[in-house]
Amino acid sequence: MPRCARSRPGPICYGRGGTESTVTDANLVLGRINPDNFLGGTVALDVDGARAGVKRLAERVERLCGRRD
């Protein structure tokens, strides 16, 4: 998992092989990052990949901590 800025492979949404959700992935899923204009539209983001990664993380947390509704 990326632990700091410039980590490789980076967020899932960058499409560079990242498999662990990052704050960037979460912000994309939450709509805080515009996927159509990230870095002025020069970088395409994988929104579906980020969603899948955040979902996997949420499921893992639920398994470890128990679901709290």
Automatic annotation (TrEMBL):
What are the boundaries of the signal sequence? none
Q: Which residues form the Hydantoinase A/oxoprolinase domain?
A: 2-62
Superkingdom of source: Bacteria
Name the InterPro entries on file: Hydantoinase_A, Oxoprolinase-like
Spell out the protein name for this chain.
Hydantoinase A/oxoprolinase domain-containing protein
